[in-house]
Amino acid sequence: MSPELSPERPATVPTFLVAGAGRSGTTGLVEGLRTHPRVFLTQPKEPHYFALHGRTVDFHGPGDDATINRVAITDRDSYLDLYPAEHDHIALGDGSVSTLYYADRAVPEILDVNPGMRVVVILRDPVERAYSSFLYMRARGFEPCEDVVDALEDEPRRRAEDWHHLWHYQAMSRYAESVAALQQGLGHEQVGVWFYDDLVADYQGTVSSVLRFLGVPYDPAEGQGVPRVNVSGTPRLPVVQRTIWWATRNELLRRAIKRATSFRFRERIRRSTLRRSEVPVGARQFLQDAFVDDLAALSLLVAGDKPPWLGAGGRT
After folding, report:
1. Which CATH class is domain 16-126+174-225+292-310?
2. CA dihedral in degrees (267, 268, 272, 278; nearest 10)?
């Protein structure tokens, strides 16, 4: 059992979580929700509390010291300090994609902090998600393999050596067990599932649907102009990408840039350095059978319209 709240701290607790999956549009969704005046989302977007609470965060992959090991918050009071003591928000939450991946560990702590927590899950074609995650880590200068198949074949070693979850390209693309854990632990009515396909096809409609799920009135004037964020692709200019890699590893420079620029400005610059890249044939062949059973199980857990990649009952 997690420790009780300290008596002197304010009673503000999160009411919702955008739980993942990683590389499925969660950042774009979070930034859209953040524009609503009655919605609060933490900074950092991903404190990873519910996945990693109570543990020492010491992942060993390239760049993990500069990323998750630095920002993860594992103490409950420190996590709740991210939320305002006084506010008029209807919905407050975070956007940690680790919550879905570590759902079995997250659920008991979610129930302990707020039994009425609503959880937003957004899913993507698992092959596309795995490749996007590889490209994202390459673009940040952390992924050592140039070929995605080499990285996929190396995944068991990386997991055994405790590289953090974004390195788990195949494992993070298996959704059924985690979605089932959330539904069974919290109740189906508290777990909402959306799809990356819908976010791309109808961004405003998807944000509106999520807001309704969170009990927040939707204003069409809110959420306008939110850019595509955290896009993945291959570098247009290697020299520019090497500069970004260097800046990513320089903590003082990273902080200075964040203080001097907006998130959207940084995202426009990053997006302009990348070109869209399709999943290579070899990688698709490597992965094409890996998710069949998982998708069959997931299809039984998700009601309503489903995208074509989810199989039976999907839209054509």
Report:
1. alpha beta
2. 50
